[in-house]
Amino acid sequence: MINSKSMVVKKPKIRIQFGEGYKFVENTVSENHLHTVCEEARCPNIYECWERGTATIMILGEICTRSCGFCSVKTGMPNQLDEMEPVRTAMAVKKMGLSHVVITSVDRDDLKGDFGARIWAKTIKQIHKYVPQCTVEVLTPDFQGYKPALDIVFNAKPEIFSHNIECIERISKQVRVQAVWARSLEVLKRSVNSGLRTKTGMMVGLGESKEEVATTMKEIVDIGVEIFTIGQYLQPTRDHLEVKRYVEDEEFLYYKQKGLDLGFKVVESGPLVRSSYHADEQARLVSEKI
Q1: What is the pLDDT of residues 136-190, one digit of tens each?
Q2: Strands (E), the chain
């Protein structure tokens, strides 16, 4: 892709490192029989984050009931719920000595009662019980917009509630076939109205324009979302959506400043930024500002 200055914008480079921090996190996750979105979604920051001693734990199994065009997590019929997973998650968080943890999950549309919200709440409570000094950030599915399920998670009182819009509305159905953009917006509104510190994130490089991104950011901040992340979409396999363009660093700087000007408390913007990238620092920053 050639930019307006007739220069090639290259795919961002991923820094690979296998130090003691990486090995420690890898062993802790393995010993507690847990999954991480770092591995399942092929996150480009896994080496940096694990070396820092942090990981985004993925609950409710490793098989998702949805097949989003950007995501490499396995799709199919998930296994039965693991009732001990919340306790093992809390023990892993304790062993890693975390002061802030991000928990995410696959979509569980097969669990018609609450879409997995009960396990979500139990995980939050177990971490609060066994690691009281650790703040909990949850990055949840939309629970099909089912209010009782959302309330179960809200009432568990995570310190930060996050749900990603993923992209601009115009291309949402292509990017997330089984999701609804307006429903994701409503989930964020319900979180804000429940008094929770709320966060969302999106990708660029999927065919959106700079103006559409700015409009989306304005729509998000207007409902009370405080933390916003934006990063480059990277195609995980040849079977996933193609990258339309690699965004310049200058454009990411524009999005960061634009977001702050619009009123977000914290904006994380850059080629390799993902939802949980430097989440502990984001939590600290937003707390200081408020």
Answers
A1: 999 999 999 999 999 999 999 999 999 999 999 999 999 998 999 999 999 999 9
A2: 35-36, 56-59, 63-64, 74-75, 100-105, 135-139, 160-162, 197-204, 227-232, 266-270
N-term to C-term CA, the chain: 41
Distance from C-alpha of 161 to C-alpha of 234, rounded to nearest angstrom: 25
Three-state secondary structure call for residue 232: strand
Neighbours of 125 (CB within 10 A): 17
**For 49-68, how does the pLDDT look when each residue is reduced to its tens digit (9 = 90+)?**
656 556 678 899 889 999 88
Question: What residues does 35 pair with on adjacent strands?
Answer: 58
Dihedral (CA of 167, 140, 144, 42) sign: positive
Instruction: Using alpha carbons, list the distances in angstroms from residue 68 to 60, 108, 282.
Output: 18, 14, 27
Which domains are delineated in the chain? 20-289 (3.20.20.70)
Q: What angle do CA 189, 195, 199 make, to 5 degrees?
A: 55
